[in-house]
Amino acid sequence: MRLILLGPPGAGKGTQADFLIQEFKLAHLSTGDMLRAAIKAETPLGLAAKEVMDRGDLVSDEIVCGIVSERLDAPDASNGFVLDGFPRTIPQAETLDGMLAEKDMNLDAVVEIRADADILVDRIVKRAQESGGARSDDNEEVLRKRLDVYEESTAPLVAYYREKGLLKTVDGMQSIDEVKAAIRSALGA
Fold this sequence. Notes:
Elements: E1 2-6, H1 13-24, E2 27-30, H2 31-40, H3 44-54, H4 61-72, E3 81-84, H5 90-102, E4 109-114, H6 117-131, H7 140-154, H8 156-163, E5 167-171, H9 176-186
Parallel strand pairs: 1-3, 1-4, 2-3, 4-5
Helix pairs in contact: 2-3, 2-4, 3-4, 6-7
């Protein structure tokens, strides 16, 4: 099973990715993890990413897509994967389509975890208060900015994948177990 998880910050993508990985024995393809691994391994793409990140700039689509492509070639990804944090834009999605076609792979589904932005902000602010503010991005101003970026750049992927017949939408405002059950049902598992 080859999946993409979409949803705004705080919607529970990480929690649900962990569930999918365990349930279906899939590789977890997180772009953040992939970038860190490529940098640590000092691959050519990793060194290029490190140079960009050391300047404080965003890593280009070319580098991110190259790292994703390399990761798709890893043996564990051949059994299926969950892409988490990629693609983030339509151009990245189009590049991913080309990569998968070259590797003779298809996506099985794109799972959108839909969530209300105002409730997410309340949830994250509450989490920060309960945990003593452990995460630097657990404040309302940063979260609202991340939600705006999601709406502008990533939300158009919903329509893109709906048109391809791959989109499965679940209500992310339910309990964790209810969201798991909804994803399982949406995937026909």
